[in-house]
Specification:
The chain contains three helices and six strands, in the order αββαββββα. With about 220 residues, the protein is α+β, with helices and mostly antiparallel strands. It has a domain of about 150 residues: TATA-Binding Protein (2-Layer Sandwich), CATH 3.30.310.
């Protein structure tokens, strides 16, 4: 079970990290087409990831990200991310559902007059990647806990199944014991019947001799 749990955690971590190439490129948002960074998560669901994302931004002194339902876009005002800029940053983002599981997170970093990009701000990209990696760790930790709970639930179910099997084995053993007792009783009955048959056959043989003797006597008297 420990091996299964460890494997599950490794698969979750690998699934998250493998997908995080931070695809970069211009994408449409509420303020037109601007450079963005995309993270494709292969675990969890969009609602849970969106909640984690909102909380993560608040940790960087951003005002609580507001969701523009019409544009399906979050806006976090005046975030302080020293790894990217000495000044405050506005963050626009979208969390899109995937057809199976996970979510696609698209982020636009408004530096104030320009959106963060590798071409225009090569010296800030490492910091941005590190900051986004921080959110990866948040997601990974959240779903690792979920995986642990799932594994614990599975362990509990397996334990119950084990008890059921042990009970079945115990009942089967009792049934075997009962059948063995019945078989022994049947064997004893056969032995007793064999003995009775032998005795009865002996009585018949003796009676046949008595009958023959009586016939002989009757025959003799007729003469």
């Amino acid at each position: 079970m420990k091996k299964l749990f460890s494997l599950s955690i490794l698969l979750i971590s690998a699934a998250i990290l493998h997908a995080q190439a931070y695809q970069e490129g211009p994408q449409m948002m509420s303020r037109g087409e601007n450079n963005s960074f995309t993270i494709d998560f292969n675990v969890g669901n969009a609602d849970a990831i969106a909640d984690l994302w909102v909380d993560y931004q608040k940790d960087f002194k951003a005002k609580k990200p507001k969701l523009d339902k019409k544009a399906n876009e979050y806006f976090a005002d005046d975030a302080r991310i020293d790894k990217i800029s000495d000044n405050t940053i506005d963050i626009y983002s979208k969390v899109a559902r995937k057809s199976d599981k996970g979510a696609v997170l698209t982020i636009w970093f408004d530096l104030g007059g320009a959106y963060l990009s590798s071409n225009r701000h090569p010296d800030r990209i490492a910091g941005a990647r590190e900051w986004m990696a921080g959110f990866e760790q948040v997601v990974k930790a959240a779903f690792a806990k979920e995986a642990l709970e799932a594994e614990e639930a599975m362990l509990k179910d397996l334990g119950k199944e084990l008890k059921d099997l042990e009970k079945e084995k115990e009942n089967a053993a009792k049934e075997v014991e009962k059948l063995q007792e019945e078989l022994e009783a049947a064997r004893q009955k056969v032995a007793e019947t064999d003995e009775a048959l032998g005795s009865k056959q002996q009585q018949i043989m003796e009676q046949e001799k008595a009958v023959e003797a009586a016939k002989a006597k009757v025959k003799k008297m007729r003469k």
